Amino acid sequence: MAFTVELEEWVGSVWHRFITRRASPDFPEARVELANQQRLLALLFRAMGGANGISVEAASDRDLLLRRNVLQQIAGTCKQVPLAWCDENSLRLPASLAVFPEVALNEELYRWLALLAAQAGQMRHWGRDNQRWTQRLLRRYPALRTRYKRLVDAHLQLRPDPASLNRSEAALERALCQALREPGSVEHFPRSERAAWPLPLWLYPPQHLASPQAADLGEDSEESLATPPGEQKGGRKRATRIDESTRAGGLLVVRLENLFSWTEHVDLDRWSDDSEDPDAARVADDLDELTLSRTRLRKGGGLKLHLDLPPADVDDIPLGEGIKLPEWDYRKQQMQDAFVNLQMMVPRDCEAQPLPPRLKASAQRLRRQFEHLRNDRQWLRQQTQGSELDMQAWLDFHVEREHGQCAERGLFMEQRQTRRDLACLLLADVSMSTDAHLNDEHRIIDVIRDSLLLFGETLSGLGDDFALYGFSSLRRQQVRLQELKSFTQRYDDHSRGRIQGLKPGYYTRMGAAIRQATQLLGTSRRRSKLLLLLTDGKPNDLDLYEGRYGVEDTREAVLEARRQGLTPFCITIDREAGDYLPYMFGANGYTLIRQPEQLPLRLPQLYRQLTQP
């Protein structure tokens, strides 16, 4: 009996693979994955005029009412197809392309969709808008005409024959083929009860989800919808809301002798299972539509508390009143005045402490390495007298004299003692993500503390003006900037105690912290001003600060700092930083520390590279 069941399952799986492969219109041997092209496509999209804050992500399959052949109906395929679309937040491309029998053509199709999306705007009519965008792209870049024609010719060979369709569908098919061959030549498209066979060269309208959103799920939404560690989020899913309520009331008639005693009667909810399902992510990926309800699953043996802020008697000590700061809203393209409240604070119970013994050897080695910068001597050119001849000044003098223009200038060089005229403010991200472990012994916050300590030891020995701050946030009403050492304070055991008292905070509202740091650094009278940002991730917070909003606000704060004569520079340990830091800080405005445990020693070396004349 068991053998028969296994044989039936084997035959069924073989039949499923066979019929699915025969019914599929794709070419699996020429399949191209978006994951291998994603970084290149994002760069191409932005280089051709696409909005910088838009991310390139995978699109989920979409339902289309297509006319399917017999094999496709038997296999149950082609009900959903992957389509490309774009909205104000993301460019969604198919997770893989196997439209053409050649790999090169599928790769070219990915590039064409990225180029077309860079020219696209708000879609009002699917057919006319795609023609207009294609016309504009080919008119601006005539070299693309040959590539476009190659894609169109290859695709037209795969489209259904109009002779095999009914009259309305055939008329629509002819109009679409004409629009592909000559973009802009078709103004009106015939109506049809069924959708036309997908056009992979065009963008489709944005896929708006159903009404329920994660924000409507209540306080438990973040935990219940979170992706398990180590698993990557896939495309978007459609969702429907259902009301799952248990019926109450009614008349219950029982015999008293059948009642349980108190010790025998236990109210158990046997529908709930508080264990993790390891296959949940795979099952969710196979579902076309997710059904959401307000039923809550509580983990057994745990108590969940949602505390916004700790009590005042154990929280950090506030310094003065809150500071109102603006914030940039990219959707409105305007600054929102007094939108964020920033509170200056100092760590509580931070007693004066010396430098930990484990860091003393590294601190002494760094002091010796930076000693020559303290007594740095520079050559002053074009001096009237000096120890050596200035050859460049002499050549300029000779050329001007040959042309009859002889201006007075010094022809000597003199080596003199110079004083470093610069100030630095180091802003450290101490959000809750810094509580994560790097290895069995150290957390990210431990590495940040050691980095701040060695940085302070090095700069105090060098004699440069510097300040140290940490920051985290909890929505726009509570951005916390922890003062570890200001420009007016000496670096001593009190500063070391504050650094060693740092604890992981909340979230990362980076724009507000940079704006306040810009104001603090702007009060310095030094000629050169360096603003260093030390972080382990991208901007985020509980409110609208997620995604593009936070990235755009941080970029605007960096631009404001540059306009005030500051030099912002970001140091990160986030391996995904290349996706967003070039946009916020510029290609040369950040660096990635691939081995975070080396950060304490790398930070002073980076400072020396950034401040050398």
Whole-angstrom Rg: 32 Å
The structural class is alpha/beta
List how many beta strands DSSP finds.
21
Uncertain segments are 209-233, 262-275, 303-307
**Strand-residue proportion:** 15-25%
Largest sheet: 9 strands, mixed
Share of residues in helices? 25-40%
Task: Identify the overall geometry.
Answer: globular
The number of helical runs is 17
InterPro entries: NorD/CobT, VWF_A, vWFA_dom_sf
Protein name: Nitric oxide reductase activation protein NorD
Domain VWFA: 421-610
Region (Disordered): 212-240
Helix and strand arrangement:
Elements: H1 2-23, E1 32-33, H2 34-47, E2 55-59, E3 61-63, H3 70-75, E4 80-82, E5 85-86, E6 90-94, E7 96-97, H4 103-119, H5 126-140, H6 144-156, H7 167-181, H8 221-224, E8 238-241, H9 280-286, E9 289-292, E10 317-318, E11 323-329, E12 334-346, H10 357-374, E13 377-383, E14 388-389, H11 391-402, E15 412-417, E16 422-429, H12 444-462, E17 465-473, E18 479-485, H13 493-500, H14 510-522, E19 528-535, H15 548-563, E20 567-572, H16 581-585, E21 590-592, H17 599-611
Parallel strand pairs: 2-6, 8-9, 12-18, 16-17, 16-19, 19-20, 20-21
Antiparallel strand pairs: 1-7, 3-4, 5-6, 10-12, 11-12, 13-15, 14-15, 17-18
What does this entry look like structurally?
With 613 residues, the protein is of the alpha/beta class. The protein has three domains: 12-181, no CATH class; 323-341 and 350-371 and 421-611, Rossmann fold (3-Layer(aba) Sandwich); 377-417, no CATH class. 35% of the residues lie in helices and 18% in strands. It has 17 helices and 21 strands. It has helices at 2-23, 34-47, 70-75, 103-119, 126-140, 144-156, 167-181, 221-224, 280-286, 357-374, 391-402, 444-462, 493-500, 510-522, 548-563, 581-585, 599-611; strands at residues 32-33, 55-59, 61-63, 80-82, 85-86, 90-94, 96-97, 238-241, 289-292, 317-318, 323-329, 334-346, 377-383, 388-389, 412-417, 422-429, 465-473, 479-485, 528-535, 567-572, 590-592. Strands 10, 11, 12, 16, 17, 18, 19, 20 and 21 form a nine-stranded mixed sheet that branches. It has a three-stranded mixed sheet with strand order 2-6-5, with helices on one face. A three-stranded antiparallel sheet has the order 13-15-14. Helix 16 (581-585) links the parallel strand 20 and strand 21. It is globular. It starts with a helix and ends with a helix. The model is unreliable at 209-233, 262-275 and 303-307 (pLDDT under 50).
